[in-house]
Amino acid sequence: xxxxxxxxxxxxxxxxxxxxxxxxxxxxxxxxxxxxxxxxxxxxxxxxxxxxxxxxxxxxxxxxxxxxxxxxxxxxxxxxxxxxxxxxxxxxxxxxxxxxxxxxxxxxxxxxxxxxxxxxxxxxxxxxxxxxxxxxxxxxxxxxxxxxxxxxxxxxxxxxxxxxxxxxxxxxxxxxxxxxxxxxxxxxxxxxxxxxxxxxxxxxxxxxxxxxxxxxxxxxxxxxxxxxxxxxxxxxxxxxxxxxxxxxxxxxxxxx
Length: 256
Known about the structure:
Layout: H1 9-16, H2 21-30, E1 36-40, H3 48-55, E2 60-64, H4 68-80, E3 86-89, E4 92-93, E5 98-102, E6 125-130, E7 143-146, H5 152-157, H6 160-166, E8 169-173, H7 177-188, E9 192-200, E10 220-228, E11 242-243
């Protein structure tokens, strides 16, 4: 299920039968059966479903989505795909436990429903904001994917103890130039190494075999992969550019 009026996620699923497959391709090299994965900013589940399949019956995914209607579709997509190893929460993650306001888009109109930013004021929808560190997952956390429209530093701050203890791989969106330096600095301060992962949303070898890129138009997903300095680095033959300093602007040259 997807919103027909959603420009990027819904449009890609409708046209190509997939969304940003390049990100999932890398995750298949980093995530293994039996792992515990956090999907922070899960949207309708186009990444949650493949992550759930990668970790398999012995693994677990916990998905977080603050938009109520989008969360309901996320749960529906897990049911449609008979996913039994995933828990979903209609909540945001941040640096401290509180409540947050979530703007409610007009889902009946054309829009980008993956680009909704939570607020600390009043809005149409109020949901809990939780921290990773306050939750018990029953196993070490191995992989954290974070796509929260500019609130990435808040999520990481609320996961400080978990990251220090479990040293998970972190996969974080970094497409806001004004916040990039702070985000890179925060992850490097965890004694992590970082690499850019820049992938076109359009995959010419897509599920629908549609070779025309006439609405995504070379848009690139700008993300980073973080691995603890003590861990072995292995990307399965994929070459990524390492980020050496918070001032690295390689990702900022591309349009999201």
